[in-house]
Structures are given as structure tokens and as C-alpha cells.
Write a structure and sequence with these properties.
The chain is of the alpha+beta class and 319 residues long. It has 2 domains: 157 residues, Butyryl-CoA Dehydrogenase, subunit A, domain 3 (Up-down Bundle); 135 residues, Nuclear Transport Factor 2, Chain: A. Helices cover 50% and strands 14% of the residues. The protein contains 12 helices and 6 strands. It has a 6-stranded mixed sheet with strand order 2-1-6-5-4-3, covered by helices on one side. Strand 4 and strand 5 form a beta hairpin. Helix 2 packs across helix 3 and helix 9 packs across helix 11.
């Protein structure tokens, strides 16, 4: 194979590594593209192309993450990763690790790690790279990488999320959730929620989103019930897998994306609902709707005057 063919074959793996380090589809794609440019212009003939390219994309991702963290400090409201509807990398032998590591809950937990710890954890625990390869990738000694791995595993173990193991059960619950949204049956919806369920939204200052989490089955059911009013002719909802977990895709009448909901499911109940409504984080999925305009339409139908913040659409910061 020539270099282009070798790179194309490994591209899904490189994206998978970069996304788990960065939590951003757009930044991961940029990191993969930069990896190709460096590979194409390099005179190096690596013994292992996989190890070489993985090392390059890891170093680029670490550098990007360091600058991204500065931006995230001034992000408006809660920050969530960019939702991933399809993961191009598939490894049947590590399917469980791959699915858990890309969930919204796991990516948010990874945010607690330093960039180096995060990179080492991803390479070792998710993709099973050996320590000599990891040491070359992050440009540290093997002993240092082992210490980084121990610290990262400890941090991750302290808050590691648990998910419903039965895939069919997850899918059935997601379908019932969408049905309740569509029908607006609050009683049926509340039955799907854990007693301490939490609903949180990432609008980044660019979309109508709650500034604080809503906690408790009854409160979240009322919140979702209010949203269900929009489903009646204003938006549509569809059960979709989001970051390898149950989720919901919300679109307007023209098919433009309004929001993506990721659901944490355990013991037959929804434990958490994370909604991404920041348009910057939805662009990679297709055309994005004006969520402010849709909200205003719904409020107008109810005879309620709603004013969006004067700088809505300008305050969000990508990160």
C-alpha cells in the first residue's frame, strides 16, 4: 500500500483516539487532517505505521487540548462534548471498552485528568497500546507513563459511570422515552425516570438552555412535558444512538437539527439527560436550526412574550 492507502485504513482509529482525548468532533477531524499532512510530507519510513500515526495524532491532540481547556474556563454554562452519532472505528475484541469510553459521562470524567493522563489512559485502557508505544507517543519515559496510567485509572475509577448492559433494554427504553415525548404523557414519562434523575443542557450562550440542572423525576418530567409542546408540529424527535448510548435527535420541520439528547440508562431507568443545543457543537451533524426562533414560535402560540438575550448567538465559545 502507498502512504495514502495506509493512512486511509488507519483513519478511523486516529479519529477515535483524537475524539476521546479532545471530546470534540471538529477538533478531532482537524487533528487527523494535520496528522496526514505531517505523514505525507515526512521522509520517515516507520517500522509500524500504526504506532507512528497514533503517536502523531496523540501529540497534536494533547497540544489542542491544552489550549481548549483555557477556552472552556470561560465557556457559558455547562460544557458537554460534541455528540457523536456514528463512530467510524470498530474493534469487536474491545467493543465494550470503546462504547463506555466514548459515552458523554465517561468523556466528562476524562475532563478531570491532565492532558497527559488523558492521553495515556485512552491509549492504554481503551486501545490497549503497550507502554513503549505510549512512551514514544507522549514523549515520556515508560516509568512516567506507568505512573500516569495509575493516576488516571484511580481518578476514573472514583467516578466511573455504570450503564445498562443489555443493549436491547436500552433501546426499548429510549423508544418508550421518544414515544412519551411525542404523546406528551407525563405519567408515562415519569415512570421511565430514576428518582434522582438530572437534566442538564449545554447551550453555550447560543441556544435556549437551562442554566442549572433540574433534578428529580417529577421536575424533569414536567420539564420534558413543556418541551413536548414543541413536538406538536414545531419539531420532531427520533431515537438515535448518541456516543454509543441511547439518545434522541431533535429536528425542525425541515430536518435541521435543534438538539441532541444523550441518556444514561441503568436498572431500567433514565439516570441523566444531557442535551446539547449549542449550534457550534451540532454543525458536524448537518444543517442546524435556530432554536431561539423555534422557542419564540412556541411561546407566541401560547400567547407569551419571550425575549431572547440581546447577545444570544454571540456569547457561546467553542471549546
Amino acid at each position: 500500500m502507498n502512504r495514502s492507502e495506509e493512512f486511509t485504513a488507519l483513519r478511523p482509529l486516529l479519529f477515535a483516539i483524537a475524539y476521546r482525548i479532545l471530546g470534540s468532533v471538529s477538533e478531532a477531524e482537524d487533528a487527523v487532517q494535520e496528522t496526514w499532512l505531517r505523514f505525507a510530507s515526512s521522509d520517515t519510513e516507520p517500522t509500524s505505521v500504526k504506532s507512528f500515526l497514533s503517536a502523531v495524532v496523540t501529540r497534536i491532540s494533547i497540544d489542542v487540548l491544552r489550549s481548549a481547556r483555557v477556552r472552556r474556563e470561560s465557556y457559558v454554562g455547562p460544557w458537554f462534548p460534541e455528540p457523536l452519532l456514528t463512530d467510524p472505528y470498530d474493534d469487536p475484541e474491545r467493543s465494550a471498552e470503546l462504547a463506555d469510553s466514548v459515552s458523554m459521562a465517561a468523556l466528562l470524567l476524562l475532563e478531570r485528568l491532565s492532558p497527559l493522563e488523558r492521553a495515556v489512559f485512552v491509549l492504554r485502557e481503551v486501545f490497549a497500546f503497550d507502554f513503549p508505544e505510549i512512551a514514544a507517543a507522549v514523549e515520556r519515559s515508560e516509568a512516567a507513563c506507568r505512573q500516569l496510567a495509575v493516576r488516571a485509572r484511580k481518578h476514573m475509577a472514583e467516578g466511573r459511570p455504570r450503564f445498562e448492559a443489555d443493549r436491547r433494554a436500552r433501546e426499548e427504553l429510549a423508544a418508550r422515552f421518544v414515544e412519551a415525548l411525542t404523546d406528551g404523557h407525563l405519567d408515562g414519562l415519569e415512570e421511565l425516570l430514576a428518582a434522582d434523575v438530572a437534566a442538564v443542557a449545554d447551550g453555550g450562550g447560543k441556544g435556549p438552555a437551562l442554566t442549572r440542572p433540574v433534578v428529580g423525576a417529577a421536575k424533569v418530567a414536567r420539564l420534558i412535558g413543556a418541551f413536548a409542546a414543541m413536538v406538536d408540529g414545531t419539531v420532531s424527535v427520533e431515537a438515535r444512538e448518541v456516543n454509543h448510548q441511547p439518545g434522541v435527535l431533535v429536528a425542525d420541520a425541515d430536518g435541521a437539527i435543534v438538539a441532541v439528547m444523550a441518556l444514561d440508562v441503568l436498572d431500567g431507568r433514565v439516570q441523566a439527560i444531557r442535551t446539547v443545543i449549542n449550534p457550534d457543537k451540532l454543525e458536524h451533524l448537518g444543517p442546524v436550526a435556530d432554536a431561539w426562533r423555534l422557542r419564540d414560535q412556541v411561546m407566541a402560540r401560547r400567547g407569551v412574550s419571550a425575549r431572547r438575550p440581546p447577545d444570544a448567538g454571540d456569547r457561546g465559545r467553542r471549546g
